[in-house]
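check this:
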Amino acid sequence: MHSHPMARRLAAVAASTALTAAVLATGIAASPSATAAELPPPPTGVVYASDVPWSSMTNGWGPAELDMSNGGQAAGDANRRPLTIGGTVYPKGIGTHAASSITYNLGGQCRQFLAQVGVDDTQGDRGRVDFKVLVDGVEQFAGERKGTDGALPVNVNLQGGSTLQLKVETGPEGNGNDHADWTDAKINCSDAFIAAPLRVEGSAGTNLNGLVPGTPATVVVRDLKPLSPVSLGLRGEKMADAVADATGAAAFTFVVPAGAAGGATELVATGTGPFDVATTGRIGAFIVQISDAKFYVDCSVLTPGNGSQASPFNSIAQVNGHGPFNAGESILFRAGTDCIGALTPAGTGVANHPITLSSYGDGAKPTINGGGAVAAIQITNASHWTVSGLHVVNPSDTPVRRVGILFENSGTAQTAGIVVTGNHVEDVAGWRNKATNGAGFAQSAGIMVRTWGKGSVDGITITDNEVNDAAGGGVKISAPDTTERYNTKVYVARNEIHDVGGDAIVIHNSDAPLIEHNRGLNLGQGAHPYEGGNFAGMWPYNSKNPVFQFNVVSNSTTSTYDSTAWDCDMKIVGTCLFQYNYSYGNAGGFYLNCVSNCGGGATTANVVLRYNVAQDDCRLGGSSSGTGKHYIYNNTFYCPSRVFLDDMTGPREVRNNLFVAPGGVLKSSAAVYANNAYFGGILPPAGETGSVLGDPKLVAGGSGQTTLDVPGYRLASGSPLIGAGVRINDDGGRDFFGNPTTGAGSVGVPNIGAYQGPGVAVSPLPFASLVNQTSVANSANPRNGAVTSDRRTFSEEALAAAGLVSGKPYSAFGVSSVWHPTAVGTPDTLKAAGQEVALSARGRTLLVTGFSTGSVTSGVATVHFTNGQSRTVTISLPNWRTGVATDAAVMVAESAYHQRHTQAYIGGPSTVVRVDEPARVFATRIDIPPAFEVSSVTLPRGSALVNEGLNIMGIAVGNVPPGLR
């Protein structure tokens, strides 16, 4: 009936000249034209286009392929794949690559051309082409397809035509990834038109995989004859009638029968298609039932059970093999057990009746071990699922795209009601290198909600999870930017994300997402660390009016350019808002401006950065253009060891901010500055009005640790910043600390900085509340902190080798203390500048541990006692690099080396240098009179900035007399 494939290919090649192609820098070059030596005979009957010799063919990458997708440069090469569009595999058709053109001789004897066209699935979500059908040179069909689209039907009248031309043209972005398929392509040269199936689709808001008896649903039928009648049926019963509009589309809203049995089914549309041909269209659906049944899983049991508590399932395979679960049902895993395998349960819940994955019994969270699957837990095209209280791992020795908990919507419908809460996800061996495989990195995370094509989700709640040691990042809501609907009701809160190999939280394709009270610590690190490309702390993409507030991001390792705490990324609509957040010690600093395609285009979106605290995070990066503007006000930037690096371009208004840094220049182009405060060496830009210079008198600047609790950034009484700002309307109504702002209608003039309350009376504070410098960094992130202006730090590993181990005790002069009790990378040292340290201990010896920098090795301090008396003493600490032990100071440890980062922000591995010179920690003692009890110590005067002065790493009281023990 049909010619042999090789014979067909030989016929096609014989009718064409040799083809050549070359790769160009901007894409893939087209092959030269192939001209037929003589026209093949016209087809007869109904034949597949791939069984008919063409009269000419050109193709953008090698030859067009018969019944396979476009491959490489040679005909029939090994990298061809079956023709696949939107997950559907088509056995017949032609695989091309734009720009392409195939011409057939019709001889005026044919009636109709039919096909399904689209970008081949081998290209992922990339590629964009224009399909065109021409009859005798006149365009009869044109349709655009993207990599995220499903197949588009083609139905063209060929009557009287001599030639049929199938063209694929490139989009404005070039022809990379433009593998374009003409699938199921038929040439009808019979005496009658043949039917093309109708397209049936669920409308926005209707999930055909979750039809609920007694509730309405809406579907759309396409490819009808305009203004013709059409009916919709379910299980042989008519649901509704409609009439197609002028475009050949009809919408049906119907009520699912109240007594409909649950399970798989299909909706059938019956009507008239083009050329007055009767036709039908079908789409699968699933009718849910509501149940409160519970299924129990105990993977420690040897014998498979029936899912009851008395006879539980004993494997992941039993759960997966159960079939669809009903709305309201629960799958409960026994606490303290381990289950191995990818959990891929089926079924869909409904509003107020979700399907739940959780635990039962006492003990540790049950473990779901994906064993290296795409995801340890994967739920696809389903609504109203809750995953809670589980321990999820997905280890592997080979990094690929991999997730811990994955929800996917791979269709065009809107799913709903995704809840992921109270889980611990770790050891997810996803892809680590964004530079070598951007898609693999973007689709790797601890927790991910991923929409493909045109689907979206109404209701995503991700709360109270811990995610660590996951490649690619912590929490990601991911989607191609070609989606047509935003996700809605997106809420991500109170998640603890640490030691992950990339971004903490990424939000794609969402309308008004709220991201709050999350922490992302030690980003780019962990068991599956970042290896290449870029990442940032928390950021939105292709979203509308996103809000990030009350979050913490810290200690990000370096990347190519980013590694900032916050980033407003591309394709934002409305306003991107970052407020009440705290960040510290990130290799890329505070904020990345990528709002207009990272400088590649104009934007109308605005960005508001207000009432944030940035500690050792004084860099702005990126660029934007257009009418969109950055409004940067009432932030506190405190960076005593790093200059302020303003690497950001774009329109901005900068008001009421506090800048503490040893230097730096703020950009003045397209900028307005007013009422900002400057201290430490950084100066206001030319033309600024109302600026304040001098000590801001913070309570304890630089003392922030790993939470939002940073009371040291309040203003002390007498601060020149109090009442020195300018009023800003609609400023959110509160400050970082919860105080009302002038924009909320209170009287008075605002303060400068993130604190809007009254001045705080200065009083003695514990040592841990006063630390203001990071002196120790580790090999995982050696860029943290500095003790000198050329950015040198102690090495945690080198100190440990010398006997000072973080979190472990040490002693000197008979007094015991704990070395470096805080997390490495956070402030650990008090640079002496007259602070009063509160103490409450008895003993005969006051031990002061630390070192000096520069030429100042001693200073006068005052020891205060509980009896109201005080005593002036001298604190002597030798220089950390050149000092030696003295009668007043002993050497606690001498490390073999220290480290230096040659750039203040970002930079590759070459910018971190191991310095093979000793680094020393000393201790000195102060004798306490008998029967006296220390209440506080006022440290010597000095500068809180790096370089000259005394650096105190610990204060302790010991040697308690026997009678006081």
